[in-house]
Design a protein that fits this description.
alpha/beta; Rossmann fold; Zinc Finger, Delta Prime, domain 3; 3 domains; five-stranded parallel sheet; 15 helices
């Protein structure tokens, strides 16, 4: 029943497939967990299993039929993919109204109608309340899959209408094995990418396909080490100048980019902690180990914890639509007092 496309999370896939096989699926599922761990991949592989035209066996049929190819391309007529529109800050009530029109129609293939909502935490209050009414009155054989990287931002009433499946990080060895066996990477390179991916198979695959992404993460990590150095204010102003475009239309992309920076910075702090604990084998950014060792002597474990808390607070502020520039500048000022 499992799919070869999955890297980890086979148990979640089997659970969902078994529920449909037994004829006892819920009308709504919430797949909750960090970005890029495989939530959307599990849904896509499940839909291929459920909607495939060529096979109803428990072994996944692959991409041999038109339905499977349409699911992969996001064009299957019985699957409605919904996410925040380009240039928008949230999922709007108009999008939910369009969704209602889809759920009111019958299946074109005579089977399931499926709604997949990506980053469901992007629902604005009006849209969330409109979705709640749809979930409270499910129509026919319509099934909802809400994918959320931050489920705490969803209305409690929306969460309560869903069967919740939690997704965690995938062990390094599983990601490494997949990169070697399926993508034919050398073991040493696969290990490096698995470390950088930090338990996120989607990140590992992106790094394998686009080596420049790994270099960008390394650059971000180096930038953070500079930020912790002698003149953090100058380093932060350089980052702000290169990242922020002062355009409302680009706001969402800027938030995502800054959040990517903050994630890398948190990983660097984790690496410094591991070096202080004499655990170099677990360090992700091994190429920067000499620089991190130099910096680590000036930081106690308590101070590193304080820095991590400052970064987490900055991430939460950005998620609440705080001003990006002010958030980063306040972060730099706080660093100087730690």
């Amino acid at each position: 029943m499992t799919s070869d496309a999955l890297i980890g999370h086979q148990a979640a896939y089997r659970l969902l497939a078994d529920l449909f096989d037994r004829g006892t699926p819920s009308h709504a599922y919430l797949l909750a967990g960090p970005r890029s761990v495989g939530k959307t991949t599990v849904v896509r592989q499940l839909l291929k299993y459920l909607l495939c035209l060529k096979s109803k066996s428990k072994e996944h049929p692959g991409d041999a039929c038109q339905a499977c190819r349409q699911i992969e391309a996001g064009t299957h007529p019985d699957v409605w993919w919904l996410k925040r529109a380009e240039g928008k800050q949230d999922i709007t009530i108009d999008q939910i109204r369009q969704l209602k029109g889809f759920t009111n129609l019958g299946s074109l293939a005579g089977g399931l109608r499926v709604v997949v909502m990506e980053a469901a935490e992007d629902l604005n209050p009006e849209a969330a309340n409109a979705l709640l009414k749809v979930l409270e009155e499910p129509l026919g054989r319509t099934v909802f899959f809400l994918i959320s990287h931050q489920p705490s931002r969803l209305l409690p009433t929306v969460r309560s209408r869903c069967f919740v499946i939690h997704f965690g990080f995938t062990p390094l060895d599983i990601i490494k094995e997949a990169l070697v066996s399926r993508y034919k990477l050398p073991p040493a390179q696969a290990t490096d990418l698995a470390r950088l991916a930090s338990g996120r198979p989607g990140v590992a695959l992106a790094l394998a396909c686009s080596p420049e992404l790994g270099q960008e993460m390394l650059t971000q990590a180096k930038g953070f080490l500079s930020l912790l150095g002698h003149n953090p204010w100058v380093a932060m102003q350089q980052l702000i100048a290169s990242t922020l475009k002062q355009s409302d239309a680009a706001h969402n992309k800027e938030v995502e980019k800054v959040n990517d920076y903050l994630k890398v910075w948190l990983e660097v702090l984790r690496d410094i902690v591991l070096l202080k604990l004499d655990l170099p084998g677990l360090v992700r950014y091994q190429a920067l180990e000499p620089d991190m060792n130099k910096l680590s002597s000036g930081f106690s474990l308590l101070k590193l914890l304080d820095l991590s808390q400052q970064l987490e607070q900055a991430r939460r502020k950005l998620e609440a639509n705080a001003n990006i520039r002010l958030t980063l500048e306040c972060l730099t000022i706080n660093f100087s007092y730690l």
